[in-house]
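Forum: Protein Structure Q&A
Topic: Joint prediction for protein chains with partners

I've read a bunch of threads here and the consensus seems to be that you should model interacting components together rather than docking separate models afterwards. I'd like to see that in practice. Below is the full input, 410 residues plus whatever partners are listed. Could one of the regulars post the assembled result?
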Amino acid sequence: MVAMSQIRYPTGSAQWNTQKSTRDNHGGRGTRLESDLNDSNAYYRDTGRALIYKKPTPIQVVKVDYPARDRAKITEAYYRTPSTTDYNGVYRGKYIDFEAKETRNKTSFPLYMIHDHQIQHLEKVALHGGIGFFIIRFSTLNQTMLVDAGQLIEKIKSTTHASIPYPWFASHGIFIQEGLYPRLAYLDAVDTLYFSQNPPETDGQ
Amino acid sequence: MVAMSQIRYPTGSAQWNTQKSTRDNHGGRGTRLESDLNDSNAYYRDTGRALIYKKPTPIQVVKVDYPARDRAKITEAYYRTPSTTDYNGVYRGKYIDFEAKETRNKTSFPLYMIHDHQIQHLEKVALHGGIGFFIIRFSTLNQTMLVDAGQLIEKIKSTTHASIPYPWFASHGIFIQEGLYPRLAYLDAVDTLYFSQNPPETDGQ
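Posted by a regular:
Agreed with the consensus. Here's the joint model:
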């Protein structure tokens, strides 16, 4: 008999430990949440449920070499700050747009992780009739939640603190079921929040 | 009196002459059409009419140096083939998705410029209830047209030729008005095609 703690999971705890930071990732260093969402979006596309992609990281190319014909090698480039959110697409005829953030904090979500341009972009999404939200993961608690963008932005604008307590998310967000296919069943949360009879309410809390 | 041919336009004919290719551009080498569309989208965003962006070119980063703190310098990277189209966003509550192509041919549009993944993506956009189209510019003729994706894809699938004659575009596309603000009034063509009483018909031609 093998004790659970002795089993070496090839992609489980190892992957977890090599995760470098819960801060915004730049290009190569994808977070585990990002990888879960990419898998989920691929599953949703393959099954024809939705057409949602992560946008490529914007990169400013400065120098390009052509070591071989038809093979451009970029030799100098820099990450640029995106002007929008990371994910968008179409689901049930509606425009979908969201940002995903992961924190290891157990008690609150730090607001420095949400940038002004993301807030402004998601406000415009709502103005144009799209559906905008945040996917927030408390990775230490193993909980991922979907929160309507309008609700979270209202909360951000009304608070004077540098973070929003976990209980606010627990009461205002929809818990996202984790599994294998899809890794994150976040479209079920979208159904609940935007396609059921009770649209999300803003309560100013 | 100065003859027209002697006037040197700072961004007109000069820009035209430095344009390297009418083939697909990779990263740095944007086409004039791409630049016109970026300007138009910025104008539409600023005036609150629509929220449409060009997606960043996907780049696979291989090596990153950190010559200074907080300043990552990419020293080896390669262009990747996109799996979607170049532009998407939201307009009048609908998901908008399109690809833009420019040819210097005067009599026909070469089909090698439209890739399989773009066709497949735009077919899925329609399935999910989004609006998908192509913007095709015949740059030598100074004409830019918007064509419904379903119509053009149907034509591509039914032809055995390597190109589609200009007259097909003239009769099935909507001419896009060029100006200063916006450079390309392509949303007027979207209004005509998708938001008027007569939706686009497919006729199998």
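The first strand of chain A starts at residue 51 and ends at 54.
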